[in-house]
Amino acid sequence: MVAKINIGSSLFGALSYNQEKVDAGEAKILCSNKVLLPTDKSLTLAFCMRSFENQLPKDIKTEKPVIHISLNPHPDDNLSDGQLSTIAQEYLDKMGYGNQPFVVYKHEDIDRRHIHIVSLRVDENGKKINDKFEFRRSKETTNELERKYGPLPADKLSRTETPQLPIVDYKKGNIKKPIANLTKELAASYRFQSIGEYKTLLSLHNIGLEEVKGEFDGKPYHGIVYFALDKKGRKKGQPIKASLINEKVGAEYLKKRCGYNTQSIKKARLKETTRPVIETVLRISKTREQFARQLQKQGIDVVFRENQDGRIYGVTFIDHNQHTALNGSRYGKAFSANALNEKFRQETSQNTLFESPEIRNKEEGAANGIFSFIDFTGQGENYEEEAFIRRMKRKRKRK
Description:
Layout: E1 2-8, H1 11-23, E2 27-33, H2 45-53, E3 66-72, H3 81-95, E4 102-107, E5 114-120, H4 134-149, H5 154-157, H6 176-189, H7 195-203, E6 207-216, E7 219-229, E8 235-241, H8 251-268, H9 270-284, H10 288-297, E9 300-306, E10 312-319, E11 324-327, H11 337-351, H12 357-364, H13 383-398
């Protein structure tokens, strides 16, 4: 089970995000504490806001009194609503929020069913709930809950498979709803420090993003439009304005989100967690393709951007374990586009040694057992053969 903790100052923002899911039939309320809940659980946003505000002291010094937690079991876990409610309550008890006002929502808008919890970080006297070593305690708590209730350990399994978020298929039509759901989900659950990094994250789900800048009535205008992409990254269908989806996927909000994410990433030391993984895989990888494959096994997608000459001019690492989407240069110079382009260009150049006449004669005799390719990794991969295939593709393109 993976827990993701966000803190903020906007109670309305946290509650409205979940209420929109409820209103759209994509979520439901499982339980609550110190929040007046109608018998049919048809809790409205205004009613919920009043319940929380009545217990929120007017004079508080805590700048961010709201906590928004998502608990994510593995997709294969078949947990009942009762079990999810119990897990949420026990998690909050162990984290010190068990006696706080809270609402637990079950989200069903994607294949991976999960729960969201909205609560307060200050008690009725305005004193902040103890948050020392919160991330460490959260990890210990989810591990304990896994042992007790037997769900699959999502954090371990996620290292060998990408989370099961859907991909937009423009051929099915009606792309507005899936684009709206995914843009909101990814903007809320992943951390990125620029709109460009968010754009790369969206591209994994066949969603494109374009910024629109200009002037309207003498005032500068900055907007965003979203659209579907095909497998080759080409635009498909009509673009959708961010304002028609939600303000939280608009330009202004995303810029603020980037600022918050920068501080959050630094505080949780998320780069320090991902960097050693990338560094280790890079050290053992001989080709760009192998680098991408090995990272994927660790739950990390790498997206390269290259020009017509095949030169890498941009690279983004999307860590699904840490829920981050960051450009390579943020991890250090060794992971920048220039450094990776140089490394893999050199590897390709070294592979061309196999084109010499002496080696070529040996290759021609390979069928008779005279020569066999060297396996550099012990995993049975022919890097020389892969290099040969790439060279042939380039020759066909030139013709």
